[in-house]
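Each lists sequence, tokenised fold; shown next:
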Amino acid sequence: MKATSVNQDGSPDGFVPPIAYRVDVSPDGVTRIACSAGPKLLIALDAVLGAMEGPVGVLWMRQVDRQKGRQLPKPEHWVAIEKDKAQVSSVLARCRNLLTLDGRGQLWLRGGFKDQVVLDEVGTLYCYPDDPSFRDAIEAVGIQEKVHENLEDRDYVRVNFSAIADAEEQLLIHELGLALNAG
């Protein structure tokens, strides 16, 4: 898991988010879908990517330099535009550890209709806007709507990192031709 709910002392508190999605409102007032997919995360990510209008833009927002053991003072934005959905899907499938076990960054995908999917650093999958095509894609992989608590609702969350994901992060950047945005 990308993150673990913990007590104030850092010990696991036993909370495991259910495999479910809910509709909520983002901090900027947009209605969105928030999905905790657990072991179905990559399947759900691929399903919502499939529901997007292509080609897609890709943003990898690195927040932590795992090798140096520090949070970056300002996140790095690695971007590419107009990528083929099949290519993105293939690359993401080869980045399993980065996307499911490592909380160093966030993956953002943007479709042709300005629809957007975000996989955050704790493993929650957000789909903007709340659209029937996203709901259908999520439900097709066996994830149902349910009012539930996600990791971002918890008081203390420990983000996990994986050395195995270092090579996958480089693969993601290289294979999708992501360029560091200096702005």
Remarks:
- The first strand starts at residue 3 and ends at 5.
- The radius of gyration is 16 Å.
